């Protein structure tokens, strides 16, 4: 590049921002398009789900992770490998349920929400719903049906961001019905 | 810091989503919505990206910035060819456009190639707009995954 | 420490302006408004000392009896104006540059809020906090 200038950050960082800025623009647009915030949350979740079912292949190819034997292993891989690879952060796995079928991912910071300031009256917006969908879709591809939802969100003023994952059941190896 | 691949997957999903929710006779609206998203992102990216860059000398200097710095940051390579008629029309050629390489494998997505170019058109328009240049940006696929972006500067 | 901080859009209307508590806010608004002409003049001085022209920081725009007015224009043609008291001789050029840098960073972050529409008045609390930290505290 012939421009001998100091840029505001290295190009990699800018391209990382391409995703978060595009995501933000989409959320903001959906909020304008849909009167009902629940509908926005659903759309974001669905988007995430569709992304997740593709992202898992990329993840498995790049991470060389073997088959997980139980939910604890899965949780660790999600936090230490998955989140690290795609978002550059490593959430803490904690708050296991007594039966061991539910856990939380605690995020100190969420790259998706850098610079985001929720407008007044949007407390029902789950801004980062896409993450729930991605986890759900990705895990379905490895034969796990899960429910994923936000318990706490720093964007709303909570101390931390907490995503809860609940294992529902193991899926048969049949091709799962795609969600449209 | 979000991984680069996230944007590619995400872009593909939103193109699909907008196409699906557009009625059969309204493929245009999918294009318009995607273009507008690109526009907003272009405005914001350029605000961040030009924070510590010296002032641009002129229009051509700005175009070169788009073709080199901005393009590389977003699409991992520079524009391959920049032509202008020196009368406000610029043609940017990318011989292997990153957002088209995803779909150039299978023929089933070919008819949607224009929609895949909507966001990038908006990105250019938004970037230029925030740098004080009003424009109209269109794109066409020459031979997958090569494409051309045509920028028509609007002098007010 | 400033007595007035303003952000002006590329179309020259104010996006944000905050002053120290004063009965005569209008005086500051007028000062900022007047400074825009000087800003335009400075950035359109083509050919004179090409290197200087490419800096975003414009330096001292003009002094009045009681105040000094400094300017800064981003590549996106957004103007920042900072007014300080003339009597404040402790304030060095470096510090003024530092204030503009912080202001610029805060502005860029604010711009990247997906719920902020470019061109709108700035109502961001985090942004306002940064500005507050630059204004003279009593």
Keywords:
heterotrimer, A: 180 residues, alpha+beta, Muramoyl-pentapeptide Carboxypeptidase, domain 2, 4 helices, 16% strand, disordered N terminus, B: alpha+beta, 4 strands, 51% helix
Helix content of chain B: 40-55%
Parts with pLDDT < 50 across at least 5 consecutive residues of chain B: none
> Superfamily at the CATH H level of chain B?
Trafficking protein particle complex subunit 3
In CATH's first tier, which class of chain C applies? Answer: Alpha Beta
GO biological process, one term (chain C): endoplasmic reticulum to Golgi vesicle-mediated transport
Family (chain C): Belongs to the TRAPP small subunits family. Sedlin subfamily.
Protein name (chain C): Trafficking protein particle complex subunit 2-like protein
Pfam families (chain C): Sedlin_N
How would you describe the overall organization of this protein?
The complex is a heterotrimer of chains A (180), B (156) and C (138). With 180 residues, chain A is of the alpha+beta class. Chain A has a domain of 123 residues: Muramoyl-pentapeptide Carboxypeptidase, domain 2, CATH 3.30.1380. Helices cover 44% and strands 16% of the residues of chain A. In chain A, strand 3 and strand 4 form a beta hairpin. In chain A, helix 2 packs across helix 4. The N terminus of chain A is likely disordered. The longest helix of chain B has 23 residues. Chain B contains six helices and four strands. In chain B, helix 1 packs antiparallel against helix 2 and helix 2 crosses helix 6. In chain B, a hairpin with a 4-residue loop joins strand 1 and strand 2. With 156 residues, chain B is an alpha+beta fold. Chain B starts with a helix and ends with a strand. Chain B has a single domain, classed as Muramoyl-pentapeptide Carboxypeptidase, domain 2 (2-Layer Sandwich). Chain C has 138 residues and is of the alpha+beta class. Chain C has a single domain, classed as Beta-Lactamase (2-Layer Sandwich). Helices cover 38% and strands 23% of the residues of chain C. Chain C is built from four helices and five strands; from the N terminus they run ββααβββαα. Chain C has a five-stranded antiparallel beta sheet, sandwiched between helices. In chain C, strand 4 and strand 5 form a beta hairpin. In chain C, helix 3 runs antiparallel to helix 4. Chain C is globular and about 40 Å long. At the A-B interface, helix 1, helix 2 and helix 3 of A face helix 1, helix 2 and helix 3 of B. Chain C: Its main location: cytoplasm. Chain C: Belongs to the TRAPP small subunits family. Sedlin subfamily. Chain C: Keywords: ER-Golgi transport, Transport. Chain C: This is Trafficking protein particle complex subunit 2-like protein. Chain C: One of its GO terms (biological process) is endoplasmic reticulum to Golgi vesicle-mediated transport. Chain B: It holds the Pfam family TRAPP.
């Amino acid at each position: 590049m012939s421009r001998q200038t100091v840029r505001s950050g290295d190009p990699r960082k800018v391209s990382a921002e391409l995703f978060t800025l595009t995501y933000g623009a989409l959320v903001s647009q959906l909020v304008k398009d849909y009167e009902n915030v629940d509908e926005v949350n659903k759309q974001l979740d669905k988007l995430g789900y569709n992304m997740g079912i593709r992202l898992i292949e990329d993840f498995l190819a790049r991470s060389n992770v073997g088959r997980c034997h139980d939910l604890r292993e899965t949780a660790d891989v999600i936090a230490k490998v998955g989140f690290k690879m795609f978002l550059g952060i490593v959430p803490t796995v904690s708050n296991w349920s007594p039966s061991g079928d539910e856990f939380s991912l605690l995020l100190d910071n969420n790259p998706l929400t850098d610079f985001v300031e929720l407008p007044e009256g949007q407390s029902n917006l789950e801004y980062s719903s896409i993450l729930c969908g991605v986890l759900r879709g990705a895990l379905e591809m490895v034969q796990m049906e899960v429910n994923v939802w936000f318990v706490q969100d720093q964007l709303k003023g909570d101390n931390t961001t907490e995503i809860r994952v609940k294992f529902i059941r193991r899926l048969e190896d049949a091709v799962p019905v795609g969600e449209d | 810091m979000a991984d680069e691949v996230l944007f590619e997957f995400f872009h593909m999903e939103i193109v699909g989503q907008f196409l699906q929710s557009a009625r059969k006779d309204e493929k245009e609206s999918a294009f318009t919505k995607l273009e507008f998203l690109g526009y907003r992102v272009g405005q914001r990216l350029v605000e961040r990206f030009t924070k510590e860059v010296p002032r641009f000398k002129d229009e051509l200097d700005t175009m070169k910035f788009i073709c080199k710095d901005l393009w590389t940051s977003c699409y991992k390579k520079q524009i391959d060819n920049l032509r202008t008629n020196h009368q406000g029309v610029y043609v940017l050629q990318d011989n292997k456009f990153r957002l088209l390489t995803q779909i150039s494998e299978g023929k089933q997505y070919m008819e949607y190639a224009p929609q895949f170019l909507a966001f990038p058109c908006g990105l250019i328009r938004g970037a230029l707009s925030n740098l004080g240049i009003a424009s109209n940006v269109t794109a066409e696929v020459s031979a997958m995954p090569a494409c051309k972006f045509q920028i028509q500067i609007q002098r007010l | 420490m400033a007595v007035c901080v303003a952000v002006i859009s590329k179309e020259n209307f104010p996006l944000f302006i905050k002053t120290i508590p004063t009965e005569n806010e209008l005086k500051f608004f007028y000062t900022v408004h007047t400074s825009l002409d000087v800003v335009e003049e400075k950035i359109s001085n083509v050919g004179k000392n090409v290197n200087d022209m490419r800096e975003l920081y414009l330096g001292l725009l003009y002094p009045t009896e009681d105040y000094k007015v400094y300017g800064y224009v981003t590549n996106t043609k957004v103007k920042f104006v900072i007014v300080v008291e003339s009597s404040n001789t402790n304030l060095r050029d470096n510090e003024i540059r530092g204030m503009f840098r912080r202001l610029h960073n805060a502005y860029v972050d604010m711009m990247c809020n997906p719920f902020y529409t470019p061109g709108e008045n700035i109502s961001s609390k985090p942004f306002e906090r940064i500005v507050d930290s630059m204004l003279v505290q009593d």
